[in-house]
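Running low. Any example?
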Amino acid sequence: MFIYGKTAANAIAVMSYLATDPTRRAGSGEIAESRGISRALTAKLLTQLASAGMVNGQPGPGGGYTLAKSPDAICLQDIVSLFEQTSTNNNCPFGESWCGVGEPCPLHDKIFGMIASNKQFIEKTTLAVFSSNPPKG
């Protein structure tokens, strides 16, 4: 389960499409159709990704978008952090009056374990997993 919002998930979907063949330019309409995202949202995400230096866009005939870096140089964290708050605090969601004063709440360890696992997943997973020629190793 991906614990971040729909915008970050859609941005990953857009980037994953570009990662399948990093040398080929893809138009926003093509990406939108292939990933089941509206054209307007896809165009907006690509604009934001381009502003952040994640994709390169070329207008006109034969234009489109490509990744700005190799798929193995872009991790999910790079994408998610553009659209979501990724830093975590150490406050239990049940509040300091229960968790943080004496024994932690019954869910504390499981919640923070999930957060740590998700953090490691988005930091270690690169777009190379979507590439038609993923790196060996």
User: Anything to note?
Assistant: The radius of gyration is 18 Å. The chain is about 45% helix and 5% strand. Strands lie at 55-58, 64-67.
